[in-house]
């Protein structure tokens, strides 16, 4: 034991104390800078910033896979895009697989929107448009007959069509509900919206996690400082010029890794060395669920976007055909007792053409109220409530995977960035203070 005390006294007598004490301070500051700049790398810029290099796209295809993952490389550019917005579509895909698919089926989402109220709103909005719709179709398909009909008779036709409107609209909303699983795909809907609006994914993190993200930056200094203490001892003992840069790489890598661990791990509360630990995001899963649900209900799965998707999405043609088929019988009834005589007067083909034209024209107009922003906002509250409740019920591991999916495979870039900054910090300290003992 005496030899150890003697060695400590000798070390203390010869150590360069300014050099020694500044190392933890340096690693602490570098750790803070690593996590601060790493946070910037995660979220900024929302869109790719850089320059396009001729031939870069072709070259990228033969580069290592990890290099190809750097934002912009596969697109033939040198620059940067925030990791989270660059992977927005991927996060949308995993969010659906891990969360939204478990939150509810398309039918559940549709029922939350209260089809009966949608039908009532459609009738209210569509009724004033019906006279013009009937008039336009009749003037196009059978102008002479429509012109020759006495005004009271024309009005009677319009009145009968309007009287059929609640039944027609009921058929439409019922038919949508029956086939909603075939005509509405939440996964495509979410992926496309996230891809087109990468800032939305950034907002999901920022709105509920800014406090934790700021804490991650602060802990960058704490982790860096603590890791700098053993680095200072090792450097003072061996006094080699290359030690600080090499150990800086280790400190930078570990600092970023600890920062990510602090946010997401462990998913469930546990004790490590008697200290309770729990991922910072996971501690506020309920609050996060409310924020996530609000954003999804207000910006992603809305009545407006559902209406757009079922008419203009991949199954749009099928939806229009299905709804037109549902509308035809009700429209035909509008001719009333005179239906047979009108069919004879016009000819069966012409009568069927007019009926089909009214049905096809009515499809788009019938769903126009889906795009009423105020009505959509009121109905979105039902979706928000459903998503919030189900997200709170998610197992912590699934919740972590949903939130971490946008960055999981790209975290190596953050760690590499930390290692490079640690290397630079080591060289900077070496440049200012020289080699320990030198």
UniProtKB/TrEMBL annotation:
Keyword Heme: no
Highest taxon above the source species: Bacteria
Transmembrane feature ranges: 20-43, 213-234, 240-264, 412-433
Keywords of this entry: Membrane, Transmembrane, Transmembrane helix
Protein name: DUF445 domain-containing protein
Species this protein is from: Nocardioides marinus
């Amino acid at each position: 034991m005496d030899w150890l005390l003697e060695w400590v006294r000798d070390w203390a007598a010869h150590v360069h104390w300014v050099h020694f004490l500044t190392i933890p301070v340096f690693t602490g500051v570098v750790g803070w800078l690593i996590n601060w700049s790493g946070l910037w790398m995660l979220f900024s810029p929302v869109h790719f910033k850089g320059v396009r290099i001729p031939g870069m796209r072709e070259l990228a295809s033969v580069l290592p896979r990890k290099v190809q993952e750097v934002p912009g490389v596969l697109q033939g550019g040198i620059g940067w895009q925030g990791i989270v917005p660059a992977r927005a579509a991927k996060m949308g895909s995993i969010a659906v697989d891990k969360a939204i698919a478990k939150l509810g089926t398309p039918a559940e989402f549709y029922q939350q929107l209260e089809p009966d109220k949608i039908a009532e709103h459609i009738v209210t909005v569509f009724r004033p448009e019906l006279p013009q719709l009937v008039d336009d179709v009749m003037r196009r398909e059978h102008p002479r007959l429509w012109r020759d009909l006495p005004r009271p008779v024309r009005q009677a036709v319009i009145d009968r069509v309007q009287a059929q409107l609640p039944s027609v609209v009921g058929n439409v909303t019922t038919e949508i509900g029956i086939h909603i699983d075939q005509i509405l795909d939440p996964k495509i809907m979410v992926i496309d919206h996230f891809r087109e609006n990468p800032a939305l994914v950034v907002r999901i993190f920022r709105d509920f996690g800014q406090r934790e993200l700021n804490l991650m930056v602060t802990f960058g200094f704490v982790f860096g400082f603590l890791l700098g203490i053993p680095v200072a001892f090792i450097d003072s003992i061996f006094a080699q010029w290359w030690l600080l840069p090499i150990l800086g790489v280790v400190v930078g890598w570990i600092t970023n890794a600890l920062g990510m661990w602090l946010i997401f791990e462990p998913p469930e509360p546990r004790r490590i060395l008697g200290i309770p630990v729990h991922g910072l995001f996971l501690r506020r899963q309920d609050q996060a669920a409310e924020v996530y649900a609000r954003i999804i209900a207000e910006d992603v799965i809305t009545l407006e976007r559902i209406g757009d998707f079922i008419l203009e999405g991949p199954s749009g043609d099928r939806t229009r055909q299905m709804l037109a088929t549902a509308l035809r019988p009700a429209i035909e009834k509008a001719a009333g007792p005179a239906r047979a005589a009108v069919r004879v007067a016009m000819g069966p083909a012409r009568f069927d053409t007019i009926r089909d034209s009214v049905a096809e024209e009515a499809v788009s107009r019938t769903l126009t109220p889906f795009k009423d922003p105020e009505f959509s906002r009121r109905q979105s509250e039902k979706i928000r409530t459903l998503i919030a409740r189900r997200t709170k019920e998610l197992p912590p591991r699934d919740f972590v995977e949903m939130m971490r999916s946008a960055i999981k495979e790209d975290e190596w870039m953050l760690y590499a960035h930390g290692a490079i900054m640690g290397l630079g910090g080591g060289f900077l300290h070496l440049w200012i203070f020289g080699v320990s003992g030198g």
